Description:
The chain is an all-alpha fold. The protein has one domain (2-232). Mean pLDDT is 89; it is low at 246-259. The longest helix is centred in the N-terminal third of the chain and has 29 residues, at 2-30. A two-stranded antiparallel sheet has the order 1-2. It has helices at residues 2-30, 46-66, 70-76, 85-103, 117-140, 143-146, 149-157, 178-188, 195-222, 226-232, and strands spanning 110-113, 192-194. It is globular, with a radius of gyration of 19 Å. It is built from ten helices and two strands.
Amino acid sequence: MFxxxxxxxxGVACYVVFVxxxxxxxxxxxxxxxxxxxxxxxxxxxxxAFAINGALLAVFALQHSVMARQWFKKAWTRxxxxxxxxxxxxxxxxxxxxxxxxxxxxxxxxIWNVENSGGRVALYGLYALGWLTVLVTTFLIDHFDLFGLRxxxxxxxxxxxxxxxxxxxxxxxxVRHPLYVGWLMVFWAAPVMTSAHLFFALATTGYILIxxxxxxxxxxxxxxxxxxxxxxxxxxxxxxxxxRLPRAEVSRVTVKHVS
Length: 259
């Protein structure tokens, strides 16, 4: 019983670290309310900043993608107990982000600066809507499963874990990856777009487009309905409307990297 309680406590601790990291990210990317934001701190030489920031983003991308792949999970769960595999993934993702927050280098230069008050309010509103979209869509696809709490809770109760089924709630009927749409809004809705922010936005957008390909390859393999879903629903932009959807729906469409 002690091991079950310890597993649950570990899962909750990993989730708490994630929540703190998530909240810090709001201020870091938005350049407000945190000790060190994307454009704060001493500026390094451009090439040095470029190399450091590129390495930090690469660390996060590799961790986030490699640990989400099935071949890695099979090997990893020989070391880490299966009930905490997801929690450990969440913890490592949070640590990679904390490292990025800590060591990120401002790069100087302003690409655009929206001085019109209405325009600034609109962009900050889009920024807030992006974060809200990210949060809401995690609950639509089972927030507590995505971040490992459901797994450790079932283990605490001695119940076998059953993964969520295949369904398309709400915005998943308009686009296949509304979670990523939220992230793109967060990355690009900047009243002041600096060189560092542009580098961050371009790199993370590229990562999202690549990550989707790996995710969907796994989803097709594990869900026979997903191929029809992919043909019926646009990936990121609800252009042209959805075609006839399959009856089955998907809950883990964006459990990726983001799985």
